[in-house]
Amino acid sequence: MRAAHAGAGRWVVKIGSALLTACGAGLDMAAINAWVAQLVRLRAQGRQVVVVSSGAVAEGMRRLGWERRPDAIHDLQAAAAVGQMGLVQAWESCFQTHGVHTAQVLLTHDDLADRRRYLNARSTLRTLLDLGVVPIVNENDTVAFDELRFGDNDTLGGLVANLVEAKLLVLLTDRDAMYDADPAQNPAAQRLATAHTADPALDAMAGPSGGPLGRGGMQTKLRAARLAARSGAATWIVGGAIENVLTELAEGADIGTLLLPEQEPLQARKLWLAGNLRVRGRLHIDAGAERVLRQAGRSLLAVGVTAVEGDFRRGDLVACVTADGREVARGLCNYGAEEARQIKGLPSSRFAEVLGYVDEPELVHRDNLVLT
Ligand SMILES: Nc1ncnc2c1ncn2[C@@H]1O[C@H](COP(=O)(O)OP(=O)(O)O)[C@@H](O)[C@H]1O
Ligand SMILES: N[C@@H](CCC(=O)OP(=O)(O)O)C(=O)O
């Protein structure tokens, strides 16, 4: 059963500061090299990987010669800005020895709350993955403060799992698994092998952080797993100190805690779409488009659209209706209403000529479409 969740597909792997730095003091290159060797192996086995990497503040502190983690947010932001240079340098140089490119992706909460920016982040990440590049994601600490912050990289990992529709989110931590109580408080605590993210009993088991470097403890890991589950990803909480831990997971080893989502990825995403957003406009589609949507479950192309109603933006939810006003489907439109009016009836090959750019060849991608 574990192996089924560790198969091919996209993995988001979150590695916390404690696992990348030598006791919080600067980056541990040997550790990063070892992570890279495992990640490269996962890729060679047919998986795509996104790394969510902490460590910027710790490396910045070392570079600036600071011994204590500062309390002032501006100092933390400055340390993160300095340290992020070293962090991406470290990942890039280690991956380069395997001939693999990396990309720096810095995100704030705002980037994912705003539909347009969400779609842009999503397309960029997907493009990077299709190009065979390993995105190295961290919070954009320079601009993120208060309500713009994710606050911890566990949460960021959960949201990135939604963005790339990951199959698995791996949260590496200092304990070897999630326990039925905080082992720092209760030495008799037992490992939880498998559970459902939605199980309310988990809340009472997850405590706050025990370590000096960790910030969220098990509570933020549980919350991240619940976020990831919204798009159908399973989450594996497992010890970063276990030898070859990622390779072990890939083989379905009985280690760590596997938290299962209630829904399969596609179904989860579609339910989320259907339930959470307001319809901002209507695309009138022809009989051919209705047929491919209903029977073949395909994307909606502009060529099948005859009219565009409403004032919506890229990423908004639109309804697809037939000439006689029946609603066939709902989905997130890759183009705003203005652009959609310009490209309706046209093949995707003409988008660049008409708009001056191409966002996506589909008007509504099938992954973002729910039949109604
Ligand atoms: N139920 C639990 N099972 C395991 N660890 C728990 C639990 N509740 C609280 N914790 C604490 O959470 C810590 C791990 O989280 P954290 O310190 O944020 O680490 P990381 O840097 O790996 O994100 C553990 O050291 C442990 O003390
Ligand atoms: N963005 C911060 C990471 C914050 C964070 O969540 O750290 P951790 O609890 O070690 O995963 C940094 O790079 O230092």
From TrEMBL:
Gene3D superfamilies: Acetylglutamate kinase-like (3.40.1160.10), PUA domain (2.30.130.10). One of its GO terms (cellular component) is cytosol. The keyword DNA repair does not apply. Pfam families: AA_kinase, PUA. Pathway: Amino-acid biosynthesis; L-proline biosynthesis; L-glutamate 5-semialdehyde from L-glutamate: step 1/2. GO terms for molecular function: ATP binding; glutamate 5-kinase activity; RNA binding. InterPro entries: AceGlu_kinase-like_sf (IPR036393), Asp/Glu/Uridylate_kinase (IPR001048), G5K_ProB (IPR041739), Glu/AcGlu_kinase (IPR001057), Glu_5kinase (IPR011529), Glu_5kinase/COase_Synthase (IPR005715), Glutamate_5-kinase_CS (IPR019797), PUA (IPR002478). Keywords: Amino-acid biosynthesis, ATP-binding, Cytoplasm, Kinase, Nucleotide-binding, Proline biosynthesis, Transferase. Residues 281-360 form the PUA domain. ATP binds at residues 14, 173-174. Coiled coil: none annotated. NCBIfam families: proB. Belongs to the glutamate 5-kinase family. Catalyzes the transfer of a phosphate group to glutamate to form L-glutamate 5-phosphate. HAMAP family: ProB. This is Glutamate 5-kinase. The lineage of its organism: Bacteria, Pseudomonadati, Pseudomonadota, Gammaproteobacteria, Immundisolibacterales.
